[in-house]
Structure formats: C-alpha cells, structure tokens
Design brief:
Elements (H helix, E strand, L loop, with lengths): L6 E4 L8 H5 L3 H10 L2 E6 L5 E9 L6 H4 L7 H10 L4 H5 L3 E9 L4 E11 L2 E12 L2 E9 L6 H12 L18 H8 L8 H10 L1
Antiparallel strand pairs: 1-2, 2-3, 3-7, 4-5, 5-6, 6-7
Amino acid sequence: EIPDDMVTFTQNIDESDPDLEALQLSQEELISYYRSMNIYLNAMTPDYGCEVVVTMIGNDGSNGSEKTFNINTYNEKELEDLIKMLPALDEVKDRGAIYSDSEIYDQKETKFIRMDFSKETEGVKTYGRQYYTIYNGQSINITMHSYKGPLNANQEELLKEIVDSVSFTQTLENPYGTVSRAWTYVITGAIIIAGCLVILFAMVKRNQQ
C-alpha cells in the first residue's frame, strides 16, 4: 500500500496523466521501460527526495526463481549464508553495489532479506534499502532509492510500512515437488537493485546538465 501523497506510476498509467509531462516521457515510453525492467510500481515522495520501486520476475522460467518457489522453505541459517555470499558475487561487483548492512525480516506472511546498499552511477551517488523475497515462484523486490544522502529514519519507516502492507491472495503449492537449494536462483533476483534507478535518477541527471 502506497501513501496517497506519493506520486505513483504503474504499467497501467493513463496517457493523460499530468505527471508524464513533468517527466518528459510519453505513456508508451514509460510503459515500455517498466516492462523491460519488470517494474510494476514506481512511487516518489512529495519532496522528491527518494523513490520506491517494486519489481517482480519469475514463475515463467525467466530467472530460475520458480525452482526455489518460496523463500519460507529456507531456514534462518541458509538465508544468513546467502546474505554473506552477496557482496562477493561478480554480478554485484560489476554493477558497483556496496552492501553496508543486511538482515532477515519476518513480515506477517513471508520472510524478506533486507539489504542496505550504496552505488554511484554516472556521477550520481545513490543510497538504498531493499526488501527481497520469493513467493509463489516470483522474485519480489521492494526498494527505496535516496539521491540526497543515506535514508533517514522516516524514510526507513515509510519503506517498512509499505513492506508490511504486502499481502498475498493465495499460496501456491510448489509444482516442482522438492525445493531447490541452488542459491544462484535466489541471487538472480536479488541483484536487480542496480538496474532500477528510475524516475528520480533521470530527473537528477537532467538537473545536473
């Protein structure tokens, strides 16, 4: 659930949405980009200090998360082992993400891996916090990006409230029978953080020029 005062974009945005003009993007351009990046929601705070990006991939053989299917089938030690592996991955290093803190977060319906990170892209320093899970074979990322320094307590609480509001209408049975312990399937979705610097990033770059 996104607060009403946030500027929100989805793949169902109307071509007459007045916020499109401020972005200097057409409806077709925005939807095309969102689909290519598996972005289902992108929301900005009223002060344009940060943005929230929700992505979802998998359950169709596109990234392997469907073989893992449900992160709740992993115990805490297995998830902690995964967290320790992330900073050393070539995919993470190549994208320039630096992890500073991480933990397992127990939401009411599923476990999330919570990760804090920073990244510099085209001269813009970004700070972020990501909540990542796999449910019904889909990798789900809920990420907040800040372009004005590390996330403050209010921003962290806002993101946590959004994550806590997530609810699933159904829990599917794993059609693969046994749970895969191949961590590369899980990691594929986790490293999406670097690819989702979306609306505010473009606006910050535009203001620098």
